[in-house]
Design a protein that fits this description.
heterodimer; A: about 280 residues; alpha/beta; six-stranded mixed sheet; four-stranded antiparallel sheet; 11 helices; about 20% strand; globular; B: about 290 residues; Rossmann fold; cell membrane (chain A); ABC_transpr_CbiO/EcfA_su (chain A); ATP binding (chain A)
Chain lengths: ~280, ~290
């Protein structure tokens, strides 16, 4: 259980290296992710998150430092083997469909990988069951809602039985319901399979569910820790252009108007409880 | 500038086997100077309504009055140039529409097409870049070398450069980080006030609708089912749920608190700041009465 599935060691990457005025998109970054963890990688637009995603799957290689995944150093030789063990889901649900039906789409990568037909049928079904889309086998992808599309995209990744699932802002284009559906799907997947998940996001409510949060700023790691510890750094997060979960924002606003709350509340229920205690004592 | 939809119906691919009805009997008044939020579940017809606001789509039934101009079903609408200038639409992910070599040229493109002089178009671009909080250097850069948040602002500047009377916003903050989102929404609110614009916001965010709008319309299954002030709309939880919408988080929290404590706060809290004040007030009253 305690094996490292992905690690960055002093990784630096600069786009247009020849131009000295261009700052590194990722600067001397180190972190490691354990097998079975759910990590949220958060940061404002332009903080280096997408570059990190590209370094993780070998679309880019570090100019200094090294990336290791699945126990192997990322290189031209190893990247195909590494990629076969990770699934990725991107931001725009409409840009990642190739199949004419939901099941064709989920089967696409399996076909590319030469999985035999009988095995394919089983895996497609299973993957769609995992994201609760098994009733939509023959539906056309473009008739689905945004949340459904992203769940199908997740199924497409799961069908390859990856060890690691990377979600690159997979919820940011969805409406609130769609976002909830996808987050709920990830939660259940994690419960059922213990799959390692890296979610790149600026939705702090989503990040709050992760085991650990890495906060990026200007290509560097600014904060790292369990969600409640990271959120407790309050102003530091807001100064980075990020935000706190709603209940914590309310806690701060209530202090500003003179209500001396003790706790930092990660959930609305906790906040309501303390307010109630506060009220009944008066 | 007022916009008035009267019994508007719209079918995509009308009179073909693929005909699909998107709007039915929509009557909606967007008063001049108002900040109107159009909310509704995905697929409720919000985007179709939006495209009627500057005659990108023409109703297949009923009529749309845009200022003094009437667009009527079955009547050919000619020369829509004025309408298109007066009603500016910021579409979702507007940065996808950037195309020119430099930011300056991109922003000037619209006004130049409408016969505005080089000098005036350039003046507007410079002014807008500043108003949108972008550094002046960006004017000479390629729009494609900017960050996502900056590209969004440039695209918005391109719409504002036409000096529209009505600004229509379709999920203008989708995909932006929290600070970017707040900055852009505050900016639109400021422009709304300073320029006396009529603003129409199409959004999934009940929080934004509650915070900024003074007029709210709910779309459901291609119909405009309710219009009213935010306070009425958002305090009616049952109605919202009927239309598959959630009340804003502030109101949900207020409700939880009221249920738990067995009290009623003074007013419906449309913003987080208002909720904090309302709670403080209730707590101090609780203290006084004992």
């Amino acid at each position: 259980m305690n094996s490292i599935i992905m690690s960055f060691e002093n990784v630096t990457f600069t786009y247009m290296q020849e131009d000295e005025s261009v700052k590194p998109a990722v600067n001397d970054l180190s972190f490691s992710i354990q097998d079975g963890e759910w990590i949220a990688l958060v940061g404002h637009n332009g903080s280096g998150k997408s570059t990190i995603a590209k370094l993780m799957n070998g679309l880019l290689f570090p100019q200094t430092g090294k990336v290791e995944a699945m126990g192997k150093l990322m290189s031209e030789e190893s990247l195909w083997d590494i990629r076969s063990q990770m699934g990725m889901v991107f931001q725009n649900p409409d840009n990642q469909f190739v199949g004419a039906t939901v099941q064709d789409d989920v089967a696409f990568a399996l076909e590319n990988n030469g999985v035999p037909h009988e095995e394919m049928v089983v895996r497609v079904k299973e993957a769609l069951q995992q994201v609760k889309m098994a009733d939509y086998l023959d539906h056309e992808p473009h008739h689905l809602s945004g949340g459904q599309k992203q769940r199908v995209a997740i199924a497409g990744a799961l069908a390859l039985r990856p060890r690691l699932l990377i979600l690159d802002e997979a919820t940011s284009m969805l409406d609130p319901q769609g976002r909830m559906e996808v987050i709920e799907t990830i939660r259940e997947l994690r419960k059922a399979t213990g799959l390692t998940v890296i979610s790149i996001t600026h939705d702090l409510e989503e990040a709050a569910l992760a085991d650990r949060i890495l906060v990026m700023n200007a290509g560097e790691k600014q904060l790292e820790g369990k969600p409640d510890a990271v959120f407790r750094s309050g102003n530091e997060l807001t100064n980075l252009g990020l935000d706190l979960p709603f209940s914590m924002r309310m806690t701060h606003l209530l202090r500003e108007v003179g209500i001396e709350l003790q706790g930092e509340h990660m959930t609305e229920d906790e906040l309501v409880d303390e307010l109630w205690t506060f009220y009944s004592k008066k | 500038m007022d916009i008035l939809l009267q019994e508007v119906g719209y079918s995509y691919a009308k009179d073909t086997p693929f005909e699909k009805r998107a709007l039915t009997d929509v009557s909606l008044h967007i008063p001049s100077g108002s900040y109107t939020a159009i909310i509704g579940h995905t697929g409720s017809g919000k985007s179709t309504v939006l495209q009627h606001l500057n005659a990108l789509l023409k109703p297949t039934e009923g009529s749309v009055m845009i200022g003094g101009r009437k667009i009527e079903a079955g009547v050919k609408a000619k020369n829509l140039r004025d309408v298109r200038r007066q009603v500016g639409i910021v579409f979702q992910f507007p940065e996808q529409q950037l195309f020119d070599e430099t930011v300056l040229k991109d922003i000037m493109f619209g006004p130049l097409n409408y016969g505005v002089s080089e000098e005036e178009a350039s003046r507007r671009a410079h002014e807008l870049v500043e108003q949108l909080g972008l550094p002046p250097e960006v004017l000479t850069k390629s729009p494609f070398d900017l960050s996502g948040g900056q590209m969004r602002r440039v695209a918005i500047a391109g719409v504002l450069a036409m000096e529209p009377d009505v600004l229509v916003l379709d999920e203008p903050t989708a995909g932006l980080d929290p600070r970017g989102r707040r900055e852009i929404m505050d900016l639109f609110h400021r422009l709304h006030i300073e320029k006396g614009l009529t603003t129409v916001l199409v959004t999934h965010s009940m929080e934004d609708a509650a915070r900024y709008a003074d007029n709210v319309a709910i779309m459901h299954n291609g119909r405009c089912v309710v219009t009213g002030e935010p306070v009425e709309i958002f305090s009616n939880e049952e109605q919202l749920r009927d239309y598959r919408l959630e009340p804003p988080r502030t109101i949900r929290l207020q409700q939880k608190l009221e249920d738990k404590m067995g009290i009623k706060l003074d007013s419906i809290s449309l913003t987080e700041e208002a909720l904090a004040k309302n709670i403080a007030l209730a707590l101090s009253e609780g203290r006084d009465s004992e």
